[in-house]
Structures are given as C-alpha cells and as structure tokens.
Amino acid sequence: MADGYFPHGSMLRHVQEHRAVGQTYGQRALIIGATHPVPYVGTSASTNAKERPFMRLSATAEAFESIFFGDRAEADRVLAMVHQMHTKVKGTLDRDEGNFPAGTPYDAFDPELMLWTMAMLADSSRVAFEALVRPLGADEKERLWADWVRFGELFGMPRSVAPETAADFEAWMQAQLAGPDFHVTDEARVVGRAIALDMPVPIQLRPGITGTNLVVRGMLPERVRKAFGLSWTPAHAAAYAGITAGVRASHRVVPDQVRLGRNTGLFRLVSRTERRIIQRGGRTMELPAA
Fold first, then answer.
1. Contact 31/123 with Cβ under 8 angstroms?
2. What would the 3-class secondary structure string for 108-143 be?
3. Whole-model pTM?
C-alpha cells in the first residue's frame, strides 16, 4: 500500500498502532476536551446525533485511524468529509459558561480551538502509550509532537499556533488544565461520565470494558476526575497499577498481529450495540434539559 501521511517509521503511527493505545486514548481525550466549554458547546450544538453519541464517537475514532494508517487517498477522503462537517460548526454560546459569557463565538476553524482539539488527542496518545507500553525518550516525544502538529495541519490548523517543542506543549497542557477557563457544562458532565463508565458493549465484553474504563480514569488528571464526579480511591489506584503493569508485561509474549493494528472491529461493535439499544427504545445516556 502507498504511504499515507504517517508512514511506517513515523512516531505517531508507532504509538497509535498499539491497540491498547487506540482503545483508550480517545476516551481520555474526549473527557478532557469537554473541560473547555466553547468547543464543547459548539460541537454539541452543531450535531444531529446527540441521542446516539457512541455511534458518532466510534465513527470519529475510525476516521482518525484512516488518517493514521491509511494511504493518502483514504486519508484525503476522510479529511474532505470532516472539513465539510466543520463548516457547520459556527455560532455563539447561548448562555454564560464559566469564564465565557453568552455570545462568545465559536468556529471549528478558529486556530486556537483547532489547537485545543488536536492537543487533547496528542496528550492522550502520549499518556496512554507510556502507561500501557513503555516510557518515551525525549527525542521520541519531540517526534511524536511534531507528527501531531502535522495531524492538526491536515485539518487546517496553522502550525504557528502550536507550542514549538514537546516540553513547551506539556507546559501548555498543564497551564490549560490548571487555568481559569477550565469549566464543565451540565451536559458535558453527563456525556463525560457516560464515556468514562458506560461504553455500550455486549454483555460478554463488559468485564473487559470495565478494566479499560478504570485505566482511562486512572490516566485522567485529578482535577478532571473531580469535575466529572469520577470516584478514585486507593483501591482504584492499586487496580490501575496492576492492570497497566500487566498490559506492559504482556507485550513480551503477545504476538504483534494481536497487539498492533486498527481498532475498527471494536469501534463498529460499540456502534452496533448502541444502535440495538436505541432500536429497542432505550438510550445510552440521559442528557439534561436544554
């Protein structure tokens, strides 16, 4: 297959091809991303899929893997589709949210908001890899950050808005998560908790998804867990340490064809499970009244 934007040997591809990373980084990124009310409200107000959130999120995750692993033709099809969807994400906040008053504008093509969206993915990618695979060296972190900046550019993000180095980016992330603009809307809290705790899967896979959810919660900063009301006890911390150590150790014995590759099957399973729940008249989450 012809090389895509992230060919074999690129750091982003190396990190994301680990299925354990692909199965966890997105949940973490979505939860952290919901702590900025402007992009959260803008995206929520522009979607027709509020009642089927996991179908939408699974489709997004699959689209990203097309960009990570596909050839340029496959990636360009996804990028064109996303660009078209983003043209509809533009408006203003209809109420005060944290530091942002009603009337604050949002636009999917705002460079700073594009940086925020990419940054949540980039930070979660690194955190998940280091928790579930191995620590990254300084040079590897630089290469990974450079690849994520390239990823953002593919969606139209100007390179000039991105922190220059991986260290600069980590400092920027810490400032964002500790800063005054951190705010979780009522709807975002419901959605974030569902993403952290209630991913729809068939009953036989629920023990496994429970472990995955615990890992995602463990990878979240404490302020984020508290904002979404996600409990974290010493018992949770001990279980997290045991699971992540076991996953890291398993890489020595689990074949590459099991450890590495796309997570298409899992994403589509989640989507099908939610569709069945809806077809039976149920819901995967109850959103607060507008």
1. no
2. CCCHHHHHHHHHHHHHHHHHHHHHHCCCCCHHHHHH
3. 0.94
Residue type, 108: A
Query: What backbone phi and psi angles, to 5 degrees, belong to 40?
Result: -65, -50
Q: Give how far Cα 65 sits from Cα of 47, 105, 127, Å.
A: 21, 30, 18
What values do phi and psi take at 100, rounded to 5?
-105, 115
- Asked if 19 and 261 count as a contact pair (C-beta separation under 8 A), the reply is yes
- CA dihedral defined by 169, 125, 58, 28, rounded to 10 degrees? -70
> What residue spans define the domains of the chain?
11-279
**Per-residue pLDDT tens over the stretch 74-124:** 999 999 999 998 998 999 999 999 999 999 999 999 999 999 999 999 999
Distance between CA 53 and CA 27 in Å, rounded?
12
Instruction: Find the length of the chain.
Output: 290
Phi, psi of 18 (to 5 degrees): -75, 115
